Automatic annotation (TrEMBL):
The keyword Cell inner membrane applies. PROSITE patterns: TONB_CTD (PS52015). It is a single-pass membrane protein. Residues 13-110 form the TonB C-terminal domain. Pfam families: TonB_C. It is found in: Cell inner membrane. Keywords: Cell inner membrane, Cell membrane, Membrane, Protein transport, Signal, Signal-anchor, Transmembrane, Transmembrane helix, Transport. The lineage of its organism: Bacteria, Pseudomonadati, Pseudomonadota, Gammaproteobacteria, Cellvibrionales. This is Protein TonB. SUPFAM superfamilies: TolA/TonB C-terminal domain. Interacts with outer membrane receptor proteins that carry out high-affinity binding and energy dependent uptake into the periplasmic space of specific substrates. It could act to transduce energy from the cytoplasmic membrane to specific energy-requiring processes in the outer membrane, resulting in the release into the periplasm of ligands bound by these outer membrane proteins. Belongs to the TonB family. Residues 1-19 form the signal peptide.
Length: 110
């Protein structure tokens, strides 16, 4: 049996200076890997002054229903840097994170 390697990419989109300080590589759902399915999930959230996340919601995914759970679990483990205004950390709504699942190399469905 050929071993498959997968890549998981995280992209950032926000009007703020919020950044990830700790990134956790998400698990690739086994059924998606077995069926050679690639895709992505994009979240929108609010970064709180302590770096936690609030109001996390999926704003898009492809294919729908495949990667959302794994991406959400990985996102929970990220630590984010809040936006600072006048020396104070402030809530930052509208921060977007996109996690992409891509198989690196040849994939043959099992």
């Amino acid at each position: 049996m050929k071993q498959l390697v997968f890549l998981s990419l995280l992209s950032f989109a926000s009007a703020s200076a919020s950044a990830t300080t700790i990134y956790v590589k998400p698990n690739y759902p086994i059924e998606a890997l077995r069926n050679c399915i690639e895709g992505w999930v994009e979240f929108e959230l609010t970064v709180m002054p302590d770096g936690s996340m609030k109001n996390v919601r999926v704003v898009g995914s492809h294919p729908a229903g495949i990667f959302e759970e794994a991406a959400r679990e990985a996102l929970k483990k990220h630590n984010l840097v809040p936006k600072v205004v006048n020396g104070e950390s402030v809530p930052t709504p509208g921060v977007r994170r996109k996690i992409t699942y891509k198989i690196d190399g040849e994939c043959v469905p099992t």
